[in-house]
Amino acid sequence: MKLVKLIAPMLILFMAFNTFAQEQTRKTPEERAKNQTKAIDKECQLTPEQKTKVEQIILSAINQTKDVRQKDIPRKDKMIEIKKINEDRNLQMKSTLTPDQYVKYQALVEKMKAKAKERMQARQEAKFEDEIE
Questions:
Q1: How far apart, in whole angstroms, are the C-alpha atoms of residue 41 and residue 50?
Q2: 40: Cβ–Cβ under 8 A, 6 or more apart, which residues?
Q3: Residue (of 21, 51, 22) closest to 36 by Cα position
Q4: Per the confidence metrics, is the pTM higher than 0.85?
Q5: Per-residue pLDDT tens over the stretch 95-115
Q6: Of 9, 13, 88, 128, which residue is 20 to 30 A from 20 by alpha carbon distance?
Q7: What b/e string do you get for 13-29 counting C-beta neighbours within 10 Å, with b at 16 or more?
Q8: Angle, nearest 10°, between helix axes 48-70 and 29-44?
Q9: What is the pLDDT of residues 51-78, one digit of tens each?
Q10: Are 40 and 46 in contact (CB under 8 A)?
């Protein structure tokens, strides 16, 4: 019983800290759009006009994706809608960037997809390890 009285408050503190830490690391859609635009600018050397347009395109896609994820529809339907949003974003990017910049942009997107896949696999492995313990 003493052990439960000792562990329970520690567990509550840990959960509260964890929730606080997650809230601190979440970025607003605007911050995410700015960060993505900076990465694209670094890779593609955008003009000031392109930076503005690219940031608007990305912010719009982020907000549309967020709206889809909040919908109460099957996961498969969400993925189809998100794919359409991404295709539309890529078409807009293609019309905004020069052909050379667009090739660099596509390479950057592929690199970002690979990193995201690695992070997802690492999370799944960590979750699996937690379930085993």
A1: 9
A2: 46, 54, 105, 108
A3: 51
A4: no
A5: 999 999 999 999 999 998 899
A6: 128
A7: eeeeeeeeeeeeeeeee
A8: 140
A9: 999 999 999 999 999 999 999 999 999 9
A10: yes
